Amino acid sequence: MIFREILTEYGVQTESEGDDIFVDGGKLSISIASVSLSSAKIHFALNLEDKGTPSDVETIGLYDIRVNGRQVFTEDNLLDLINKTVTKFIDELETIEKDISKTKVLG
Asked: How many C-alpha atoms does 66 have within 13 Å on its Cβ side?
């Protein structure tokens, strides 16, 4: 959801199916969350290009996204996109930790 919000800031319209993000009908992200007895794991990845992706899945890469005919993401602004995403994710985790620490144990 964090990354979808950021894409919206860039003027990119998205759809979601489960945890995956789609742009113009192409699958942009690959994500999974799982939990075991000893840990939890979140995996989130984005296609930069649609080259080398499975032929039975319509995909799109960040570099393929266009808004009003203009390429939105390039190598020049990719680091800004990454930093914005990571910062928002860290902020979300810190908010969750603060909420957990101020919650009293029930029972």
From this structure: 5
> What residue type is 63 in one-letter code?
Y
Q: Are 28 and 22 in contact (CB under 8 A)?
A: yes
pTM of structure: 0.82
Which tens digits make up the pLDDT trace of 4-54?
999 999 999 999 998 899 999 999 999 988 999 999 898 899 999 988 888
Classify 34 as helix, strand or coil: strand
Q: Is 4 exposed, middle or buried (0-12, 13-18, 19+ CB in 10 A)?
A: middle
Q: Are strands 66-67 and 70-71 parallel, antiparallel or unpaired?
A: antiparallel
SS3 58: coil
Give the number of other Cβ atoms within 10 Å of residue 94's Cβ.
Answer: 10
DSSP state for residue 68 in the 8-state scheme: T
| Cα dihedral sign, 76-80-82-83 | positive
Taking the C-alpha atoms of residue 76 and residue 79, their distance in angstroms, rounded to an integer, is 7
Strand partners, 66: 71
